[in-house]
Specification:
The chain is 39% helix and 21% strand. With 540 residues, the chain is α+β, with helices and mostly antiparallel strands. A hairpin with a 2-residue loop joins strand 7 and strand 8. Helix 1 crosses helix 4, helix 2 packs across helix 4 and helix 5 packs antiparallel against helix 6. The protein is globular and about 95 Å long. Bound molecules: the ligand Nc1nc2c(c(=O)[nH]1)N[C@H]1C(S)=C(S)[C@@H](COP(=O)(O)O)O[C@H]1N2 and molybdenum atom.
């Protein structure tokens, strides 16, 4: 008997699985058909226990920091790479096992086996795709497409096995040599042709993806100019005397730099022209509101908002500020007529995310809004188009994007991240951060030279009343505060320190609107949000 060739099987698995992915990618760009590796990844992260997922994310962030890579810019890309590798491993393992079995004459490399193999690989994945498919175009077309390509993968596997592991009696030595040569040629030709198709379809897919991105940007811009929201500029603090120290992060985050966090490998795309917001459950008058209803039937509210992710460390990039426009949730609920005994809003999203909001909180705060615009334009796709909620003073995890359902209920159910071990309340923890010790922009004051130090302080909707800076073991000195864009944004602070040569440690701490000092004891982001003092070293 010929010895089994799991190595060959693995190689064939790489060729056909990479090819399979490139075809799925092209079909995704051409026709919006599902890209299964991302969906598999989404499913795996959803079914794995919370601590495992958090450990995975933490490991990734730690690794990035060690490598000096920006977490904000690359986290999603890293997830996508992991998704592709995971899918590849799956295909390779199945292929290697298959070749091993064929090599041991346990399976014939014929058409039936190929179809069964393709079904074994594809059916669970098709199941996952259907389970996660709120947003895949036509489900029937997607289904048929996936059946075809996975069966195709199986047939290609068995066809290759038939060429590479011929059945029959052990041939004579001379024939064996010829066969060996044949197999080699077959492998080379196979490698060349699969590689060609892979490169071609991936390349074409990438071009289509870039065009689609442009088209989407143009379309959003056009919709944005229908005057959905007031333009945020000029800023309310344009005349403020206290200016940021050069090197401080922008007070108003450029939209493209706003941090992004979402559970799936890709942002969720919702068709705004057919989308409606259903308000259901314990209401007298269930509603179905279109985007236009929300824009036209309710007084728009505008608010400068700093949004912060609970998983951010100190300091971190997972915090940004922009201008939010929407309608008061109170007003919408008044139209729906909330019934006695109702206690919670269950919000569900197009990506499978969900959160629960206490109705007492909504009744107490008319600022809580269904938000449809950022920075004067409709929401960007990545940030929750067409609708997200804003709740002051809590971390981003409490505020779903891509809202597709709102149900009024008497029962509490934990939200997506609460279920995975994160804080139920998720109230923002006060933080202050040093952005810059501006060694290069010394201020001359008579014969004194001062080093400007600057950064931000943030305390949800509680405001910042005081920021203090400490250098080495010196006293805590009060910094100057720039008036913020609003009571719900971060505050820019600055401090001028008398220059002294050497290596120094700068520390910062803040007090909120009530004069409460921030928590100085260090704690990690999980489960309640990071606390502790930010230190920064500089050599002068
Ligand atoms: N539907 C949905 N909403 C969501 C999330 C998500 O994954 N899906 N992530 C939440 C988290 S953890 C944060 S920090 C904010 C981030 O919003 P942004 O990406 O617009 O900055 O969205 C929140 N809302
Ligand atoms: Mo978050």
């Amino acid at each position: 008997m010929r010895t089994a060739r799991p190595g060959t099987g693995a190689l064939i698995g790489v060729l056909f699985t990479v090819l399979l992915m490139s075809i799925m990618y092209l079909a995704d760009q051409l026709a919006g058909l599902p890209f299964v590796p991302f969906l598999l990844f989404d499913w795996v992260t959803r079914v794995l226990p919370g601590p495992v997922v958090t450990f995975g994310i933490d490991t990734m962030i730690t690794l990035f920091r060690l490598l000096g890579i920006s977490v904000t810019d690359n986290a999603k890309l890293a997830e996508q790479v992991i998704a592709v590798i995971q899918f590849l491993i799956l295909g390779v393992v199945i292929s290697a096992l298959f070749f091993a079995l064929v090599g041991r004459r346990k399976l014939p490399p014929d058409r039936t086996t190929g179809l069964v193999l393709g079904a074994l690989f594809g059916l669970p994945l098709i199941g996952i795709t259907i389970a996660l498919s709120q947003n895949i175009g036509n489900p029937l077309v997607s289904l048929l497409w996936l059946v075809v390509i996975f069966l195709g993968w199986g047939l290609a596997e068995s066809w290759s096995a038939a060429h590479l592991l011929p059945a029959g009696e052990q041939p004579a030595t001379a024939e064996r040599a010829v066969e060996h040569l044949d197999r080699r040629r077959f492998l080379i030709r196979l490698g060349a042709s699969t590689a060609t198709i892979t490169v071609a379809s991936t390349g074409l897919g990438a071009v289509l993806a870039r065009n689609e991105q442009r088209r989407r940007a143009a379309a959003t811009e056009e919709m944005g100019h229908t005057g959905v929201a007031a333009d945020p500029r000029p800023f309310p603090n344009a005349d403020a005397e206290v200016m940021p120290v050069p090197g401080t992060r922008p007070e108003y985050t450029p939209l493209k730099d706003h941090y992004k966090v979402f559970i799936r490998a890709e942002p969720t795309v919702i068709d705004g022209s057919t989308w409606t917001l259903p308000i259901t459950g314990m209401v007298d008058n269930p509603l179905q509101l279109s985007l236009e209803d929300l824009q036209n039937n309710y007084e728009p509210m505008n608010q400068y908002v700093t949004l912060r992710c609970i998983s951010g460390r100190i300091p971190t990039g997972l915090i940004s500020t922009t201008y939010w426009t929407g309608v008061s949730v109170q007003r919408v609920l008044a139209d729906a007529g909330v019934q006695a005994g109702a206690q919670y809003l269950h919000i569900t999203s197009g990506d499978g995310y969900y959160e629960t909001v206490d109705l007492d909180l909504i009744n107490a705060d008319e600022r809580i809004m269904f938000c449809y615009a950022w920075d004067g334009n409709l929401l960007p796709v990545d940030h929750g188009f067409p609708l997200r909620i804003w709740i002051p003073d809590v971390y981003g995890m409490k505020q779903p994007k891509w809202i597709t359902g709102v149900e009024v209920s008497s029962e509490y159910t934990p939200g997506y991240w609460v279920e995975r071990g994160w804080s139920r309340e998720a109230q923002v923890k006060m933080t202050s951060v040093i952005d810059t010790v501006a060694v290069d922009t010394l201020i001359e004051q008579g014969d004194r030279r001062l080093v400007p130090v600057g950064g931000i302080a943030y305390s949800g909707a509680r405001g910042i009343s005081k920021v203090e800076v400490q250098v080495d073991d010196g006293p805590w000195e009060e910094a100057q505060l720039r008036p913020p864009l609003s009571g719900t944004t971060w505050v820019i602070w600055r401090y001028a320190w008398p220059f002294a040569e050497g290596r120094h440690t700068f520390a910062v701490r803040a007090y909120d609107g009530d004069g409460t000092l921030q928590i100085t004891e260090e704690s990690p982001p999980r489960p309640d949000g990071a606390t502790g003092i930010h230190n920064e070293q500089a050599t002068l």
